[in-house]
Every structure is written in C-alpha cells, then in structure tokens.
C-alpha cells in the first residue's frame, strides 16, 4: 500500500538509544489519511511521539468499510525500496500485482509479504466483484543495511500457525510466539500476531523482554495492561516485559507488533526507505524517469507519480519526536 499524502513528511529515524529502556503505556494518536479515491485509513505509525516499534516503521489501519456498490480499494502502481510490506486482511479481498509478475488474490488472515529490497512496484485493488466489507492493516518493516539492496521477493502464505489460550485465538503472521512460528521471511528479530478475543477473555501472553511492543485494536474494545483501547487506537508497551495481560468484556480483535529496537538510522519518505536524503531523491528521480523500477504486468492504466520532494534538507528526528 502506498503513502498517498500529497506532501509526505520525511523522517530520519532509528537507533537503539531512543527506544524505551523499560515498560511503557503510551497511547499513540492516529491520523486520518485518504488512500486513493475512497479508502480512509488511520495512520498509527509514524505518529506524534513514536516512529518505530522494532523494525515496524509504518502502520495503517482501515475499515471496516462498506464498499458495496463502489470500487473499493484502488491503489495504482507505485514503488518501494528498502522495506517489506505486510498486508493483513480481516474482511474483504485485495488483488495484488507487482513488477515480479506476482498476481494473487489476498483473503482474510492470509499473509502477503512483499520484500522491496533494491526496487519493486505493485498495485492493490479490490476485485471487480468483491465482498461488501473491507477491513485490514498495511504494515511496513524496515530492512537492515545488509539486505536492503537485495533482490525483491513476494510471498503469499494462505495457512498460518497459531494457538488458543483462555478465550484468545492467535494467528502468528510474522516471527514466533508460544511455539508457533510464521513461514514469513523476517530479516530482523520481530513478531506480529493477530489476536481474536472472545467475550470475557482474560489472558496473559508471553513476551520477549528484549523486544519493544505495541498493540492495535482493530475492532471492539479491549483492556491492555489496564488501559482501555477503542477501535483504531494503539498502545505502546515499551520493552522489558515478559508478559502482557489482555481482557475483553465483548469480542475484540487486536494486532500485537514487536521486535528488537532497530539499530540503524534510516530515512523514510513517501514509499522509500533509504539512508540519506540524497538516496531518497535518487529513488524519486528513477521512478519518474522509468529507471530502476519495472512495470507491473497486467495492469492497464496510470501509475502514481511521486510527490514533490521537501524543500529543506532532512533533519535527524530519531525514534521519537
């Protein structure tokens, strides 16, 4: 999924020094953003107060939207570098096509994992005949320097491991938890877990104390370490925790994301992750001139143009604002 803001802010971020040194309970505000022509998303990362959780660098939550009688999601071909996209659906269907020739229909609780590496372009659209509701999350993972220029790749995993515990059904989309390990390729120590809480659930889940974590509420209301979370809200938990307690009076859906604090400083602008403003400018020029990025086979139409680069040089901002 693309960052479609007309004037995207540049971010220079990363480095362990500004990760939380211990447990935290920071409620992170989201920002409403229009994606394409009709899809509204809540942008939860980067946001005021925090720019990374482990290597997770970007979190959009959208829906549930009633897309009956409309085209639904329509995101034209756009580029990525230096990151992985993790597409996670709770309702609906999305047609993914990319410059590698991948052409798949993504359904709820299937992992679509695209590694941009050196360069990739892709498009995401609701199929012509699609379910009534669209609901999901689009996540980006920053790639470490050793693999950020590797060949691009795409994985589609229709069956994922998980576990049940005290009213919680967990699906592990990235990393591992409680003995369940995702088949998705990760390049830094991280975890992503979909959690379905039944009414009356009260459970403690194991955490890695060296990881920092955040919890997003996709639907329903849940209590996370004593803090109530409403739909579309995200709570940063910091690091140093060995467990997290989750409770829900009624059914709720959560997304738990975490990882080792990302050591490297990166620059993220529009759909690119690099290491300097000069690199980002080069990526934007190559996209505009048709270099570096291949076309998306089977897509008949326009592609997204890059916004204008910011007039001022990038300034270091770290993991937190």
Automatic annotation (TrEMBL):
Residues 193-290 form the Pirin C-terminal domain. CDD domains: cupin_pirin_C (cd02247). Residues 41-141 form the Pirin N-terminal domain. GO terms for molecular function: metal ion binding. The keyword Metal-binding applies. Binds 1 Fe cation per subunit. Fe cation binds at residues 78, 80, 122, 124. Keywords: Iron, Metal-binding. InterPro entries: Pirin, Pirin_C_dom, Pirin_N_dom, RmlC-like_jellyroll, RmlC_Cupin_sf. The keyword Metal-binding applies. Its cofactor is Fe cation. Residues 1-23 are annotated as: Disordered. Belongs to the pirin family. This is Pirin. It comes from Modestobacter caceresii.
């Amino acid at each position: 999924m693309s960052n479609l803001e007309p004037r995207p802010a540049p971010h220079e971020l990363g480095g362990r020094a500004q990760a939380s040194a211990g447990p935290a309970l920071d409620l992170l505000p989201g920002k409403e953003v229009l994606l394409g022509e009709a899809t509204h998303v809540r942008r939860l990362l980067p946001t005021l107060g925090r720019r990374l959780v482990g290597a997770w660098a970007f979190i959009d939550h959208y829906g549930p939207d009633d897309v009956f009688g409309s085209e639904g999601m329509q995101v034209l071909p756009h580029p990525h570098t230096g990151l992985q996209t993790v597409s996670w659906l709770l309702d609906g269907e999305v047609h993914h096509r990319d410059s590698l020739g991948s052409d798949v229909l993504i359904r709820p609780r299937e992992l679509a994992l695209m590694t941009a590496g050196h360069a990739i372009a892709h498009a995401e659209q609701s199929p012509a005949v699609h379910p009534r509701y669209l609901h999901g999350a689009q996540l980006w993972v920053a790639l470490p320097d050793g693999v950020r220029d590797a060949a691009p790749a795409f994985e589609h995993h229709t069956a994922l491991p998980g576990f049940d515990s005290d009213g919680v059904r967990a699906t592990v989309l990235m990393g591992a938890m409680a003995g369940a390990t995702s088949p998705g390729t990760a390049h830094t120590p991280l975890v992503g877990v979909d959690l379905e809480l039944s009414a009356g659930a009260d459970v403690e889940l194991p955490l890695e104390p060296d990881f920092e974590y955040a919890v997003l509420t996709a639907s329903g209301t849940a209590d996370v370490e004593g803090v109530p979370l409403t739909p579309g809200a995200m709570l940063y938990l910091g690091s140093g925790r060995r467990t997290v307690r989750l409770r829900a009076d009624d059914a709720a859906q959560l997304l738990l994301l975490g990882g080792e604090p990302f050591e490297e400083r990166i620059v993220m602008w529009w759909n690119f992750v690099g290491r300097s403003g000069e690199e980002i400018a080069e990526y934007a020029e190559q996209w505009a001139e048709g270099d570096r990025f291949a076309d998306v086979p089977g897509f008949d139409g326009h592609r997204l143009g890059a916004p204008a680069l910011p007039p001022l040089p990038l300034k270091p901002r770290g993991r937190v604002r």
